[in-house]
Amino acid sequence: MERSGSNTLGASLARLQHSAGITGTRSAKCSTHGDYIATVLRDDQLSGCPACSFERQAQQEAAERSEQQRQAVAARLERQLGQALIPLRFKGKTFENYRAVTPAQRVALDTCRAYAENFPEAKAAGRCLMLLGHVGNGKTHLAAAIAARVVEQHRCNVLYTTVSRVCQQVKSSYGKEATQSEREALEIFRAPELLILDEVGASYGTDFERMVMFEVVNARYEEMKPTIVISNLFAQGLANALGDRTVDRLREGDGVVVLFNWVSARRELPDE
């Protein structure tokens, strides 16, 4: 009875192999792995080396894992860039597409690029950057380029905002219907590894505005966190808008000032 069962199983296996086009086995040799037993197919073709097949499968799986990791990194970077709140108009602004023709423009570009590429050093020193000067000269363009490079190259979190938004956030913490305290509102701007403050001095600097800016800049200064300030003002105007104490905090740790003092590209456009 046992022999009969074995014969039946063998016959079933033979039929299965035949239906799959397998006619037998034969010794074969792989140039890489040496001798192996090959399966002979109906057209007298031999199956490939199983060791080679295993290696190809392992390589394919490794490539798939690498692609999955690449996509995960790209998705994380996309989330971080989205969380940076860079305005839509300035997304995609890079150092490469910044128009630098004059020596002053090239200095601005090179200084901002160096700040971004060496951001770990700036971060360790709490070194701030001030982009000051005429409207329309690409200050926000370069700040957005710095943000993208810092996120992509150094995996640091960045937040872009304006002075008016900071003040509105703090004001919203006052009153009975407030959903957060003043401390929690300020924490939003203290937390990022790099904060970009735009439109500094765009409106007349009130005592409240100067107080809020000092609280933000000073909190970051105490924790050695870099801040980038963007303003259409120059040094004295910036001091008037922010107050001397705040500007002193920005300058400490070898704070960098970049002057955009050439004629605005927007003003050079002919009237239509």
TrEMBL record:
Residues 125-253 form the AAA+ ATPase domain. Pfam families: IstB_IS21. CDD domains: AAA. SMART domains: AAA. This is AAA family ATPase.
